[in-house]
Amino acid sequence: xxxxxxxxxxxxxxxxxxxxxxxxxxxxxxxxxxxxxxxxxxxxxxxxxxxxxxxxxxxxxxxxxxxxxxxxxxxxxxxxxxxxxxxxxxxxxxxxxxxxxxxxxxxxxxxxxxxxxxxxxxxxxxxxxxxxxxxxxxxxxxxxxxxxxxxxxxxxxxxxxxxxxxxxxxxxxxxxxxxxxxxxxxxxxxxxxxxxxxxxxxxxxxxxxxxxxxxxxxxxxxxxxxxxxxxxxxxxxxxxxxxxxxxxxxxxxxxxxxxxxxxxxxxxxxxxxxxxxxxxxxxxxxxxxxxxxxxxxxxxxxxxxxx
Length: 307
Known about the structure:
Number of helices: 9
Helix content: 25-40%
Largest sheet: 6 strands, mixed
Strand content: 25-35%
Order of helices and strands: HHEEEHEHEEHEHHEEEHEHEE
CATH class of the largest domain: Alpha Beta
Oligomer: single chain
Structural class: alpha+beta
């Protein structure tokens, strides 16, 4: 494993990984199959690798499409490039997924354990060209965003909006332990299947239920949440976050975002960042309006594996 971690640092220097992170996302993933970790060796030393994982097992607590396959990470050492190694690695990975019954393969966008949402084509243009030659096509382009918090204070209009919603009977604040079943079910059933598990794992691992901010309507129904520190315990990583479809348009998303940013700042965070949103979605526009800036754009690609 150490050799593969070193390969990542050499092959994609903007995105190194630690041993623990690699182990968690690859070796300890419930859907891990050793045959899907494909390594190219030259002179007894690894010079490239790719990790492929299939959804047919349906293992783990985060649901994945049983028809799908994912390439979650891979690279070739710069000194070993232009020899067809990357092409052969991806071809073998696609064959592994096809033989396992997958109908399609994504480059990243693997919900249980992704390193990056997709390929950063600006930083790794050769990778994009390789994948496109092998039949991958762009699905969508999520963006990462960052916001400095060193001088952050909640904007007065947001504070007024929060007060107005509270007057109407909405509550917004840090989760108590007995809020967790409601917010986990809400996140998984109304927003994204993996978000409830993200909340559960965060509290189990790091013991900080107060890093989940919840919103209930006047009837006590859970209608929104935001969290931070949920992934790898990184306190400056914001999200996931969302509001019930039936309660959108009331400014609850804006309130949740800023209440959470204020709590992050109170813990000493100097920035807030996340890896994945659509720049033209309501959430993306909300982030931009709050002062976030786009720092990276990723390309999620898919190749068909069946006729």
